[in-house]
Amino acid sequence: MEKTFLMVKPDGVQRSLIGDIVSRFEKKGFQLVGAKLMSIPQELAEQHYGEHKERPFFGELVDFITSGPVFAMVWEGENVIATARSMMGATNPKDAAPGTVRGDYAATVGKNIIHGSDSPASAEREISLFFKEEELVSYSKLISEWIY
Ligand code: IDP
């Protein structure tokens, strides 16, 4: 089963959106297999956003993601990587469709509430950056046979 890394960013935590966001993915039928509220150390933030190192907003991005606690999660399900991205909405909330997390709750690209891995390679990389193997839980739910 595919896994992805999702994270409620500091703005989403401050705005009390953890429960709503978890609920959306649960109701969709995905399964939570790891979660923690944490403060991101500077070095982890720089690694996580390493692909944006040369972008003009990199410093701002690292400052923002380390500015308060985040809620880091690993979700499991069929096609969860791509489906979670579409449930998050476009990176810039002005382009995000209503019904998506960013479309419903965010107003600017710098404070867009949620992060989600954009490919199988980034999911693997980000899960291992944020979680130790023993922090992920493997379990089955009887409801799965009504989803798949
Ligand atoms: P994603 O989060 O939808 O995958 P990325 O292009 O990987 O989007 O960008 C990472 C994060 O960097 C975005 O979620 C957003 O918070 C921030 N970001 C992207 N473009 C800009 C920008 O032009 N100004 C400020 N922040 C930006």
TrEMBL record:
Family membership noted in the UniProt record: Belongs to the NDK family.
UniProt-listed InterPro entries: NDK-like_dom (IPR034907), NDK-like_dom_sf (IPR036850), Nucleoside_diP_kinase (IPR001564), Nucleoside_diP_kinase_AS (IPR023005)
Main location: cytoplasm
Keywords assigned by UniProt, alphabetized: ATP-binding, Cytoplasm, Kinase, Magnesium, Metal-binding, Nucleotide metabolism, Nucleotide-binding, Phosphoprotein, Transferase
UniProt GO molecular function: ATP binding; metal ion binding; nucleoside diphosphate kinase activity
Residues involved in ATP binding: K9, F57, R85, T91, R102, N112
Assembly notes: Homotetramer.
Function noted in UniProt: Major role in the synthesis of nucleoside triphosphates other than ATP. The ATP gamma phosphate is transferred to the NDP beta phosphate via a ping-pong mechanism, using a phosphorylated active-site intermediate. (Microbial infection) Catalyzes the phosphorylation of dZDP to dZTP, when the bacterium is infected by a phage that produces the substrate for the synthesis of dZTP (2- amino-2'-deoxyadenosine 5'-triphosphate), which is then used by the phage as a DNA polymerase substrate.
Pfam families assigned to the protein according to its UniProt record, in alphabetical order: NDK
Residues modified to Phosphothreonine: T91
A Gene Ontology biological process term: CTP biosynthetic process
Phosphoserine PTM sites in chain numbering: S122
Organism: Robertmurraya siralis
Superkingdom of this protein's organism: Bacteria
GO cellular component, one term: cytoplasm
Subcellular location: Cytoplasm
Gene3D superfamilies: Nucleoside diphosphate kinase-like domain
Name used for this protein in its record: Nucleoside diphosphate kinase
Domain Nucleoside diphosphate kinase-like: 1-138
